[in-house]
């Protein structure tokens, strides 16, 4: 990948953004694999899909890392909130929701 400053045209810049988007998608696919594994492990440990303290911990970590890297922490939190909610829905699809088990 080139540095943004090394892109001389919008076409070059867009190609780099598209390549980076591909890497981000690959990382999200990798993360989803861990979510699927969590859905398999949590029932054996008596854990629900949604664990509020863990959600808070992940968001705090993301905000801190974003701020340290120069990314708007509010943006990072909004993105991760969506990712977390999707992940919980994915786990509940495998495990069943809390309401389904009650």
Automatic annotation (TrEMBL):
One of the GO BP terms on file: salicylic acid biosynthetic process
Keyword annotations of the record: Isomerase, Lyase, Pyruvate
Record EC number: 5.4.99.5
Residues reported to bind substrate: 14, 31, 42, 91
Coiled coil: none
The Chorismate mutase domain, residue ranges: 4-95
EC class name: isomerase
Claim: Calcium is one of the keywords in the record: no
Example of a GO MF term: carbon-oxygen lyase activity
Isomerase recorded as keyword: yes
InterPro entries: Chorismate_II_sf (IPR036263), Chorismate_mutase-related (IPR051331), CM_dom_sf (IPR036979), CM_II_prokaryot (IPR002701), Isochorismate_pyruvate-lyase (IPR008241)
Protein known as: chorismate mutase
Organism (species): Rhodovulum adriaticum (Rhodopseudomonas adriatica)
Lineage start: Bacteria, Pseudomonadati, Pseudomonadota, Alphaproteobacteria, Rhodobacterales
């Amino acid at each position: 990948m080139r540095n943004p400053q090394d892109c001389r045209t919008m076409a070059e810049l867009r190609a780099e953004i598209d390549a980076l988007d591909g890497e981000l998608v690959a990382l999200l696919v990798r993360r989803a694999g861990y979510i699927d594994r969590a859905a398999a492990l949590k029932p054996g440990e008596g854990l629900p899909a949604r664990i509020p303290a863990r959600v808070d911990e992940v968001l705090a970590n993301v905000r801190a890392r974003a701020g340290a890297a120069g990314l708007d922490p509010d943006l990072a939190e909004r993105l991760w909130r969506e990712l977390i909610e999707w992940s919980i829905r994915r786990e509940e699809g495998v495990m069943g929701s809390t309401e389904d088990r009650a």
